[in-house]
Amino acid sequence: MPRVSVVMPSYNHAPFVREAIESVRTQSYQDFELVITDDGSRDGTVAAIRLADDPRVRLRVFTENQGACVAINDAITRAQGEYIAVLNSDDYFLPGKLERQVAFLDAHPEVGAVFGLPHFVDERGHAFRNPGHLFWKAFATENQTRSQWLKQFFYRGNCLCHPTVMIRKVCYDRVGLFDPLLRQLPDWDMWIRLCRAFEIHVMPEKLTAFRVLDGERNVSAPSRETLARLAWETESVLRHYAGFADEELREIFGWRALGASRRSARIELALAAIQLDRTGYAQFGLALLRDCLREDRAAFSLGEYFEMVARVDPFAVEFSGREYRWLRRTRVLLYSKRAYCWFRGHVLRWLPLHGGNS
Question: Which domains does the chain have, with CATH numbers?
């Protein structure tokens, strides 16, 4: 039985998948299996994988596309190793990646998963250098305690690079696999569940080449469709925090046991989410505040709750029909109510379409 299972969900990456496979086969650490689940590729990816002449490569092919989470969950379920490393089919491991992380996990049994930093490359494998790009600083972080990680995940979102991870298989056994109903945020969802139960560590070295595709074709690249799914999935992921006990929340966020208003930690969490003024956070915060009031009508001022719903306007009813259609046509991306109000006051008032409902 291999010590390490490298799991690879593949989909329509025929130009890159052989490089990904070879980066595993040429690692200095050789006690591994490469478990690949192809998610219904139609571009020759499967044929490219089958060219790999190595009995350690185990391939399963879905006849139809089922989604990245379904594919990676299938590969994890088939994995036999004690440690699991994740590799996307358009990325590749840098030399020594497996050896360094196996040594770290062996030396630190208290750590459930170890991450690294990405080395960004373009489609041609050249170093990608664009400090203004969304990915550039997304994974720059320092090590901290589990509570600090959970606080950072709440305020910042995902800040760990998935294709750099090596994780103990027992972690998946305890916290579960990836949520197939999430397309944009399954990593963030997983890290919250993981850090609630296990310590994690980030090695301050580049371990995986992360490919930035031309034309913003990465699944996580910004687009209208991506932003719509992000808004929908954010509220779902944040609901994990609503399930934490008051003691956990106070430890994570550093809230005193009894504030001046004697509010529960769940109400403090709801108000913190609302004050962040981000897509998905307002919906989560208001829904949590409503749930707290249903449990205890005296937990918060009902009048203040009603006023807050109107002020936050979680469904942006302030949009007029013409404004909405114009924004969709021009693909103006609005991340918060505050951004919309600024846009309405400084831009829309100069447009002839502003001011009417339809």
Answer: 4-221 (3.90.550.10), 225-312 (no CATH)
